Amino acid sequence: MAYPTVSAPYGLKPINLIGGQVFAGATRQIKIASGYATNIFYGDVVRISSDGVIVKETGTTTVDASGVVGVFLGCSYTNPSTKQPLQAQYWPASTVASDAVAYVADDPDQLFKVAAVSSGSTVAFYAQTVIGSNAPLVQNAGSTTTGDSTVALLGASTATTASLPLRIIAGVPDTANASGEFCEFIVKWNAPYITLTEGTPNVVAWNGGHQYLNPTGV
């Protein structure tokens, strides 16, 4: 039997929600600051900054203490060259557009499909035993040709570590190999986690997870 081939990572793709709830394609529009100097690709992880705008999240084994808000699914803005409205697959770094907004899959219950890699963009297969574990992200550079992300899951470093950003929910059987190993997984955002700094007084801090579930906000 021939199996579909996953030749490269493609970012995080929304599929459905926890419990089999349907993902109807709903997104939230969140402002991008004019001139924001980082490319954001379709499928990249994003968060809301303290300025209330979308920024790319670049964390791997941990994410920003405030957490992440979801996955970038394109944007719209007035093209500064043509002065015409533009629907775009990715945000080109340093674009000057005061009306720029990102479309974000921001549901805390969202499930995503993601490719697993051994490092970088090298797709690799992993056994059923990684399901239920936590996993880091691999922040590969996206493509300005396609506009797509190449963010991936680092399958070689799954663990029970609370600070890892992804929880592996299931393998994708369509691209499993003959040995029953998976190169794609279904994941969700891990829960925010608590750290304790001993002192006078002790300081308890919430970190990571989804920003809507992190009680300290941004």
Features:
mainly beta, globular, 0% helix, six-stranded antiparallel β-sheet, 218 residues, eight-stranded mixed β-sheet
Descriptive report:
The structure is a single chain. By secondary structure, this protein is an all-beta fold. The protein has one domain (about 1-190). It is about 0% helix and about 35% strand. The protein has no helices and 16 strands. The chain starts with 12 loop residues before the first strand and ends in an 11-residue tail after the last strand.
Count of separate structural domains? 1
Q: Can you give the helix content as a percent range?
A: under 10%
Number of strands: 16
Report the total helices: 0
Mean pLDDT: 95
SSE order in H/E notation? Answer: EEEEEEEEEEEEEEEE
The computed structural class is: mainly beta
Rg over CA atoms: 18 Å
Which spans have pLDDT < 50 for at least 5 consecutive residues? none
Largest sheet, in brief, is:
8 strands, mixed
Shape: globular
Strand content: 25-35%
Distance between the termini: 49 Å
SSE topology sketch:
Elements: E1 13-17, E2 28-31, E3 45-48, E4 54-56, E5 70-78, E6 85-88, E7 101-105, E8 110-119, E9 122-123, E10 134-135, E11 137-138, E12 152-154, E13 166-171, E14 184-189, E15 193-197, E16 203-207
Parallel strand pairs: 8-12
Antiparallel strand pairs: 1-8, 2-7, 3-4, 3-5, 5-6, 5-7, 8-9, 8-14, 10-13, 11-12, 13-14, 15-16
